[in-house]
Write a structure and sequence with these properties.
Layout lengths: L1 E8 L2 E8 L3 H8 L18 E8 L5 E8 L5 E6 L7 E3 L12 H7 L15
Antiparallel strand pairs: 1-2, 3-4, 4-5, 5-6
Amino acid sequence: MQMFINKQIGKNKYTFVAEGENLFEMVMESKKLSFYDVHTCGLCGSDNLFLSAHYAGKKNEYEYTTVNCGKCGASLTFGQTKADKNVFFLRKNDKKEFDWKSKENKSEESETKPEQGDKEDLPF
């Protein structure tokens, strides 16, 4: 069985496919995309957003998936749960708002190991 999940990031629409042997497995796989649509940049308000992925670290030991703003260069990083590194959520700050980083903040953080933690405020 397959389920198609549509997510909107800025002006772009992305379609993901969740597969499972039965309804339960298919729905459980779809829950791994546990993030809301992102319509605008949290810093400049632009809808010129796109998904990106890259490696970081001296030996490319860290994997990052981000939402990037094509206007101001800000980014919003996806986090992963410790229990299942295939579950992705958008990182939030202490105020429970999306944790957008400007270009200046990104260069400072790229030298440190990303924190991965359990996330209890998933959108379902």
